[in-house]
Amino acid sequence: MAADIAAFLSKNAADFETELGAVIDRVDPERLYAPAAYILAGKGKRFRPNLVLCASSVFDGDRGVAMKAAAAVEVFHIFTLVHDDIMDRSPTRRGRDTIHVKWDEPTAILTGDYLLGKTVELLLAFPDATLRAALDVFTDTVRKLCEGQIRDMAFEERDDVTLDEYLQMIDQKTSALLECALMLGGMTGQSSARELKVLQEIGHHLGRAFQIQDDLLDLTADSAAWGKPVGGDLMAAKKTWLLLQALDPSNAHHDWFSGLVERGGAKPGEIPEARRRMEEAGVIDSARKAVIFHSTQALNRIGSLPQSVGKEGLATLTHKMQQRLH
Q1: Where are the alpha helices (DSSP H) in the chain?
Q2: Domains of the chain by residue range
Q3: For residues 70 and 152, is the Cβ–Cβ distance under 8 A?
Q4: Digit-coded pLDDT (tens) for 24-80
Q5: Which one, 8, 125, 158, 257, has the greatest CB density within 10 A?
């Protein structure tokens, strides 16, 4: 079975790269299509399209429609990164210049707009019987992501953000797209309303596990593998799961972290000290336990799905996500 799962995931990966490579089928004007092709060529983990293809397999979905849906989810995800990079003034993405750096900001905005439109075009592969429902899932996801981004931006100006508010934000910014990926995959086959709800719950818990793991890795990853400065979130005083836990009044190091926030973030030389204090306060261990909890919740729900290589693929992806080091 392990060999079958590996072969299934390997074929999905190869077929998806072919599909994604064909998304940009125009060259003129070059200033629009060159940056679009450039950003799609950046190598990512392809976690979201993998979810689409696995969920589709669980319900014997149409492979052609599933590939288009997988491409739509990845193109939309990349669109959000293009605009995020502009808002964050990020100079690089996945080890390469961001579009607004390599070209300019107006070009990056228009490239993102084009990719959003391309997402809808790809979703039109759904047959008429399910197209409206698929578009409803997608447009609801767009709303959630925009709400989540606004909340995240507002957190930068507040010093009273609660952990519950943070979880609501990541439910919208991270979980929502994973829920969308799984539900679209299920909708390419014969999934019931109850089964779609299970897929949505899987995405919810995967999103929480993924984001808390991301927050944790920002402080604990190997710098070379991470691809960006370790502790970058703390240097920006970004309200992450770790920092909010560290700011809890019951934490013996609360005052130290409050001072860090008041100064606008940690200095690079303070990152080891911040990590030591978080480890001493149990924040690092608590984050790891939260990742395990939400991963386990996702796995429990995956276990209720019909037996298939797609189901086992989802379990494998969840284990890999939980164990990622960068």
Answers
A1: 2-21, 30-40, 47-58, 63-88, 99-102, 105-123, 128-155, 163-170, 176-187, 193-220, 223-226, 232-235, 241-246, 254-262, 271-281, 283-302, 309-323
A2: 2-323
A3: no
A4: 999 999 999 999 999 999 988 899 999 999 999 999 999 999 999 999 999 999 999
A5: 257
> What pLDDT, on a 0 to 100 scale, did the predictor assign at position 261?
94
Kindly state the average pLDDT of the residues 287-296.
Answer: 97
288 Cβ neighbours under 8 A, 6+ residues apart: 216
Cα separation, 161 vs 210, in Å, equals 21
pLDDT score recorded for residue 40 = 96
Residue 13 has pLDDT above 90, yes or no: yes
> Residue written as tokens 């849906």?
69
Distance CA 214, CA 271 (A): 16
Here the tokens at position 145 are 């992501």
Q: In the block, which residue shows the tokens 């997988």? A: 70
d(CA 314, CA 322): 12
Is residue 160 within 8 A of residue 185, CB to CB? The reply is no
Q: How many residues does the chain have?
A: 326
User: pLDDT value at position 223?
Assistant: 64
Buried b (16+ CB within 10 A) or exposed e, 269-280: ebbeebbebbee
Contact between residue 73 and residue 49 where contact means Cβ atoms under 8 Å apart = yes
Q: Rounded to an integer, what distance in angstroms lies between the CA atom of residue 82 and that of residue 79? A: 5
Q: DSSP letters of 191-223?
A: --HHHHHHHHHHHHHHHHHHHHHHHHHHHHS-H
pLDDT value of residue 324: 78
In this prediction, residues 85-91 reach a mean pLDDT of 92
- pLDDT of 265: 95
| pLDDT tens string 96-134 | 999 999 999 999 999 999 999 999 999 999 999 999 999
Classify domain 2-323 by CATH number.
Answer: 1.10.600.10
